[in-house]
UniProtKB/TrEMBL annotation:
Entry's localization field: Membrane
SUPFAM superfamilies reported in the protein's UniProt record: Multidrug resistance efflux transporter EmrE
Residues annotated as transmembrane: 7-25, 37-54, 66-90, 96-116, 123-143, 149-166, 178-203, 215-232, 244-263, 269-286
Keyword Membrane applies: yes
Residues covered by the EamA domain: 9-137, 150-287
Designated name of the protein: EamA family transporter
Lineage: Bacteria, Pseudomonadati, Bacteroidota, Flavobacteriia, Flavobacteriales
Record keywords: Membrane, Transmembrane, Transmembrane helix
Length: 290
């Protein structure tokens, strides 16, 4: 399989996996607090990744560790908690839609902070994707007027963190394989995640019942597949493509998330479906530009 085919395969698979992660967070929050969910997500992922990728950590050189730390904090630690809190206030599908601001932030910060150059067609594609996203947000607000859209700021902050993460991986960790980067990330996160879980009262107040058992099941799937495996795939995709291409996965995620939202009783209109088509066109244009 060529690198061109691989990056598109990763894009599709990650869209399906991460598009499903929002509904998993929503379900897990029934039995866990946002703080507990975020901490458990990192701890379970860390155990999984260190089991399969501990040897790869040896590949990390001294010069890499500071950037491994930056990507761990900006791409995983803070977003894990921010998304958990956000989905308490707004629909899971709306959170996924807002997350599609990531390519725009990747473009802006990549150009201003990291010195990456992009084509005009890529910028046009990003704007088209943003138009589709804006339509989805406005229509969602119309259909669900009782939601607290201040929680949307938490998702926007996360998308900025993701933008920095993908640019850092591309510029400073391009000579390190994807599994080493991801395993290194979670090695650094084990202690802070455990401390957060400890002070959240999880060990003293956790009760085993149907809700908490189901929540642990959802968070395990989210951690192993939606964080562990998906992070390795994402870092591989960054190496194979550009930061803009890699971050454009967040334009496809809302389509999957909205479908899960419908299944779970969240409202969707024909206008939102059309907006999804606009987003897809924007992704195609971004990645067609050479």
């Amino acid at each position: 399989m060529s690198s061109q085919q691989q990056k598109w395969l990763y894009l599709i698979v990650l869209s399906l996996v991460w598009g499903s992660s929002f509904i998993l967070i929503k379900k897990a929050l029934i039995g866990l607090t946002p703080i507990q969910l975020g901490a458990l997500r990192m701890l379970i992922t860390a155990v999984f990744l260190l089991l399969i990728g501990f040897k790869s950590i040896k590949k990390i050189q001294k010069k890499h560790w500071i950037y491994i730390l930056y990507t761990a904090l900006l791409g995983t630690f803070f977003p894990a908690f921010l998304f958990a809190f956000a989905i308490q206030g707004i629909d899971s599908s709306i959170s996924a839609i807002l997350n599609s601001l990531t390519p725009f932030n990747t473009f802006i910060f990549g150009a201003l902070v990291f010195g990456f150059s992009f084509k005009r067609k890529q910028f046009i594609g990003i704007l088209i994707g943003l138009i589709g996203t804006l339509i989805l947000i406005l229509k969602g607000a119309e259909l669900n007027p009782n939601q607290n859209y201040w929680y949307a700021l938490l998702v926007i902050i996360s998308s900025i963190g993701y933008a920095f993460n993908v640019n850092i991986v591309k510029k400073y960790l391009h000579d390190l394989d994807a599994l080493a980067i991801t395993a290194g990330n979670f090695l650094l996160l084990i202690v802070p995640a455990f401390l957060v879980l400890l002070f959240s009262g999880f060990f003293s107040s956790f009760e085993v019942n149907q809700e908490t058992t189901s929540a642990l099941g959802y968070i395990t799937i989210l951690s192993v597949v939606g964080t562990g495996i998906a992070k390795v795939m994402f870092n591989k995709m960054v190496h194979l493509s550009s930061p803009i291409f890699a971050s454009s996965v967040t334009y496809l995620i809302p389509i999957v998330a909205v479908m899960w939202g419908i299944i779970d009783g969240e409202k969707l209109s024909l206008v939102q479906l059309l907006a999804g088509g606009v987003i897809l066109f924007g992704v195609w244009l971004v990645n067609k530009a050479k």
